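An example makes the point: we print one protein in full, the chain in one-letter code, the fold tokenised, without further comment:
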Amino acid sequence: MLHSHLPWVLHHGRWPHGSDWLCEAALDTYLPLIEQLRSLEHDGIAAPVTLGITPVLANQLAHPDFPGEFAHLLSERLAAAARAPVDLPATGDAALVPLARYWHDRLERLRDLLDDLDGDVPAEFRRLQDAGRLELVSSAATHGYLPLLGREESIRLQLLVGVREHERLFGRRPRGCWVPECAYRSRGPWAPPGARAVAERAGIDEHLATAGYDFFFIDAHLAAAGQALGAYPDVPLGAERFDAERHDATHAGPAAARRSAYEAYVVSRVGHPAVHALVRDPRSSMQVWSRHQGYPGDASYLEFHKIRWPGGLKLWRVTGPDVDLGAKHPYDVAAARSRAGTHAAHFAGLLDTIANECTGTGDLIVAPFDTELFGHWWFEGVDFLGDLYRQLATGSTVRPVTGSTHVQVVRPRPRIRLTEGSWGAQGDHSIWMNDATRWTWARLWPLEDRFWDIAAHAPGAAWARPILAAAARQLLLAQSSDWQFVISTGAAGDYAESRFTQHGDDADALLAGLEPSAGDVGRDAAAALAVEVNRRDDLFPDVLAAVDAVLAGR
């Protein structure tokens, strides 16, 4: 399971956390992944990856402004690669000149690929889906942290917009959902610090059932199959949320012996549509993400942190776990490519080992990762994925399947009650609700109340509808879990605070124009602001229909 997500960054600057963030992910991950999937398709190798693309990311990749932003970033990289053969010898780095030529050729190839796609990345994933090559699953609209949202209507809107946007862009209703941050809360009382207590709220599984989902993904400790995953103390912006080092068999609690991590479970309440939880496998996750044993830290692989400026070229390899950036050795493309194949064979062997230890008739190994790990953070990761599927096609005891295929084929399933938590630090909500982020929830919860109270009584006149739509978009953008995550990890906290505040302020100002006391001046001001923010944040074109559906209880 590859989970693809970035917050809305279009029209919010370029570097370092504006559109360059999106374009780097496309250049490093999404386009190379398409290239690899096309190669597997050409060779007749089955690669039924379950690929999640959040609605907010899909809207950006499908946006008419994306190709222009991508071209701007690419032109800078190509210019740097073109200059490097002249500049490098002058600094005593003549040995790096072949790498500059390698980057120039690679960048031109990926530019040609995007041209071949007519600039529409989601359309190619849709083609691969329709050809039966993969399964596309969705998520909450803006990756909102569902268990901590203050209103049931907000959770329903996040999920409903997610379903409808997926249908609009990919042509099918999604069967699977990547619940943001694997964050789960069951039915019961709700009283987080600073919130208005509610005696009983519906569980996330009930909301998923209402939205029409068949399955979602959880971390192993939510099914009591082991201890919670930890988090890197210095997580860079956009990196993985967890560290598998603490989640191997040696840390598993007594429940691990009673409840397998290699089985899907029915989570929804009796009498509700069945929603299945697919449990993340600790062992395969650790093999990739362990700080000490994980593949990406291999000495042969491209060093992520050492970058040649201007232009952003990476020309060095990891070299060793404790090697200072100044002592990194030149990158060897062929050696790294060979190492990716070796690691793919090792991973396939690990999967066979796990499978041979399983005792059930429908055992499932679920290996979920952020898509951006492959290619962006771990440059050779996309080659690793391609090699892995080729390995599995040569006689492995493990058969790769999509999430919905497994859910359809293997029945019946045990019904369980999940533990509340997430795949974040300590396995709870603390990355998103802590002393550094509590103010965001103190701001968001009253904003949710205000939006839904005003939306329920908003004028139906033509002048009011664009204002309400704009307010809905700003509310959804303010709910993005990315803002709390970035604040908590200390990476670009000022940026996250600014974006959260901006969307909250704009939502408040728009809602003020819908108040009965607004008057003509207030309405005109809100209408003008709606035009501005709808141009800046022009995503989810049918958001108003979703708001209407939530209010009508549909």
About this structure: The chain has two domains: 2-427, 438-551. The beta strands are 2-4, 50-53, 135-139, 176-178, 188-190, 198-201, 215-218, 265-266, 276-279, 369-370. The first helix runs from residue 19 to 42.
